[in-house]
Amino acid sequence: MSGTAYYYSTRRKEKPPKAGLHTRDGFLRPWKQVASEILERHRTVTKRYGGKFLLPHQVDLLERIRRGEEAGHLHEGPIKIIDDRMRTAFEAWQAERKSKAA
After folding, report:
1. For 59, what's the count of Cα atoms within 13 Å in the CB-facing half-sphere?
2. Ramachandran class of 20: left when φ > 0, alpha when ψ lies in -120 to 50, beta otherwise
3. Hey, where are the domains in the chain?
4. Can you give the C-alpha Rg of the chain in angstroms?
5. What's the mean pLDDT in 21-50?
6. From CA 74, how far away is CA 61, in angstroms rounded?
7. Are 56 and 50 in contact (CB under 8 A)?
8. DSSP H helical segments within the chain, as ranges?
9. Of 7, 38, 90, 94, which has the maximum CB count within 10 A?
10. Coil, strand or helix: which one is 30?
11. Global confidence as pTM
């Protein structure tokens, strides 16, 4: 057998990037939409409710995705964590605003 057979290849194929993140309801949100929502909430939700926690390199990554750069499979996990944390902060902020309005 030849050492150059296809199964001796040392290259690993990268996983293809997914199209976006799934919501709690099972719907798929495209990466651009996810990045836009996170960045908008980062600007509006105050630190008191858990917002404004993104680091500069995270903001840069989300800005690039929002502008159209592909999100790789390595970005999926961290972006999902950021999205969940930002949603929790946004929900706390909304609940406080509703209680003050009532």
Report:
1. 11
2. left
3. 6-101
4. 19
5. 88
6. 12
7. no
8. 31-44, 56-66, 73-101
9. 38
10. strand
11. 0.75
* pLDDT at 14 > cutoff 70: no
The amino acid sitting at 90 is F
At residue 86, the 3 state secondary structure works out as helix
pLDDT higher at 5 or 19: 19
The Cα 36–Cα 53 span in angstroms is 16
Phi-psi domain of 60 (left: phi exceeds 0; alpha: psi -120 through 50; beta: other): alpha
pLDDT bin (cut points 50, 70, 90) of residue 5 is low
Task: Name the percent of the chain lying above pLDDT 70.
Answer: 82
Query: CA-to-CA distance for 93 and 59, rounded, in angstroms?
Result: 21
